[in-house]
Amino acid sequence: MYIETSAPRTPGQKAQLFSKAITVSSPICVNFFYHMYGPTIGALNIYIVPSGQSAMGQAAWTRKGNQQNQWTKGQISVNPSQQQLQVDTFYALICNP
């Protein structure tokens, strides 16, 4: 997923990416890479959402603002659940310059 944060973007614009629902029967680690560089970077949040639930609740992982001009590995642990989950829900937000 890519969201451009320079003009003509405006503060508050968002991008979202949802995985398909999966069943987590044993602990798993979700690995991903992110690149957040520059003065207009907002936030990147990852949520673990039970399938069919619309409310995202509290982020399982978050980064805000400039994180250097490089790709960085991130990871979160997901514990087993009796429900299907959308594990890698990414939510990016543009902030004010």
Automatic annotation (TrEMBL):
- A Pfam family matched in the record: MAM
Source species, domain of life:
Eukaryota
> Where does the MAM domain start and stop, copy by copy?
1-87
- Matches recorded under InterPro entries: ConA-like_dom_sf, MAM_dom, MAM_domain-containing
UniProt-listed SUPFAM superfamilies: Concanavalin A-like lectins/glucanases
- List, alphabetically, the GO terms of the cellular component aspect: membrane
Output the PANTHER family linked to this UniProt entry: APICAL ENDOSOMAL GLYCOPROTEIN PRECURSOR, MAM DOMAIN-CONTAINING PROTEIN
The identity of this protein, by name, is: MAM domain-containing protein
Supply the source organism for this entry: Dreissena polymorpha
